[in-house]
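Forwarding the complex inputs:
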Amino acid sequence: MQFDSFSDFLTMGGHGVYVWTVYGIALLVLSALVITPLRRDRRFFVEQSMLLRRDRTVDRKTTDIDSE
Amino acid sequence: MGSPRWYYQISGQWLPWIAIVTVSLLVVGSIWGLAIAPMDFRQGNSYRIIYIHVPSVFVAMSGYMVMAIAAAITLIWKMKLAEVVMKCCAPIGAGMTFIALLSGSLWGKPTWGTYWVWDARLTSVLILFFLYLGVIALYEAFEDNISASKACAILSLVGSVNIPIIHWSVEWWNSLHQPATLKLTEESTMHPDMLYPLLIMIAGLYCLFALLLLLHTRSEILVRERGTKWVKELIAAK
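Prediction (whole assembly, two chains):
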């Protein structure tokens, strides 16, 4: 451990602001890059399964009408 | 082999393993770099930014090369998968380049006394950032995928001249930027206590690039292949 106390670790001899901002923004940007495709996938599956279900109901309705 | 379906299945098996390796490397590397590595006797603690800066620059440049190679394959063989890889490299590379520029700038303030100078190294990396943004914007500007990929592939290939310029900029022109700390051909000038966490962070960010590329390409493939039987089966199974 290079620091005597936790507040030492945060201030880093006056350089804390720069170091922590860099780590914070890097974490933010990288998490955004991870989350974007995951959210897109979830939306895709929700939308497509709704479409699939609708298509099936439409199919069933048309067969109902046909049989009447 | 090489079909979108095959790729989707095999990458799905790799995904959790790459994720575990990536997270472990980045967590270990960050803690080591932030708290355990010794302080630099000239730069103080500000040098700890190196553990973000150098890895992000490496990945930003390698990511561009991946994009340019995928662009060449797209133009020559019109391979679907290469086209998807090329498209997905752009946002990931843009993010990495943004981190590289920002971390460099925030490192420059305490060490050089300024956030930015218009010298060759910094300017060529800024151009790299604009090239990535250019590919994203150009892709969106076209209605159909085929013309969009062709235009983006040409832009990626032309822009690849920037990569050697970035690499040798500190040797060709006078620069505030320090020369490379890591060299493949020579022994590193860095002390092992500082070097090991850096190597771990570089490995970690490369793994993260692979992970991100898998996530983005898989997502893109699903959308493109939504009309096919195998994607419909996936949707039905959810």
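Residues 4-237 of chain B form one domain.
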